[in-house]
Amino acid sequence: MKLSSLINCIVLSILIFNCQEKTVYDTVIRNGTLIDGSGNSSFKGDLAIQNDSIVAIGDIGNAIGENEIDASGLVVAPGFINMLSWATISLIEDGRSMGDIKQGVTLEVFGEGWS
């Protein structure tokens, strides 16, 4: 009798766990090495984005994303700021600034050499 009660409890627990509603985000980046910009060490985890904002970091469990990105072996970090940019000429020649964008630079400060 005790064994059948235990089995019933286990089966019921599994059913309840699997019936929980999954959180759906716009984008989920999974298994990346996360650098949060706080100065703390990097850590492995997931990142969820909703409406252009980061809404969850770490282990987001069984949540799903409309777009899912596997970042295994990759680093996920906030954009970098180039405080000493000399890209003035390259930006005029190629306004896309691909050299910096491919390195994660999202903001360039110009004129520091002449100010």
Task: Summarize the entry for a quick read.
The chain has two domains: 2-78, Urease, subunit C, domain 1; 79-115, no CATH class.
How would you describe this protein?
This protein is α/β, with parallel strands linked by helices and 115 residues long. It folds into 2 domains: 2-78, Urease, subunit C, domain 1 (Roll), CATH 2.30.40; 79-115, no CATH class. 24% of the residues lie in helices and 36% in strands. The protein has helices at residues 2-19, 88-93, 98-101; strands spanning 24-34, 43-50, 53-58, 64-70, 75-76, 80-82, 105-108. Strands 1, 2, 3, 4 and 5 form a 5-stranded mixed sheet that branches. It has a two-stranded parallel ribbon with strand order 6-7. A hairpin with an 8-residue loop joins strand 1 and strand 2. The mean pLDDT is 83.
Strand and helix map with partners:
Blueprint: H1 2-19, E1 24-34, E2 43-50, E3 53-58, E4 64-70, E5 75-76, E6 80-82, H2 88-93, H3 98-101, E7 105-108
Parallel strand pairs: 1-4, 1-5, 6-7
Antiparallel strand pairs: 1-2, 2-3
From the alpha-carbon coordinates, what is the Rg to the nearest angstrom?
22 Å
User: Could you please say which CATH topology of the largest domain applies here?
Assistant: Urease, subunit C, domain 1
- Class based on secondary structure composition and strand pairing: alpha/beta
Total domains, how many?
2
What's the level 1 CATH class of the largest domain? Mainly Beta
| Through-space gap between termini | 84 Å
Described by its quaternary structure, the protein is single chain
The coarse overall form would be elongated
Largest sheet: 5 strands, mixed
The overall pLDDT, averaged over residues, is 83
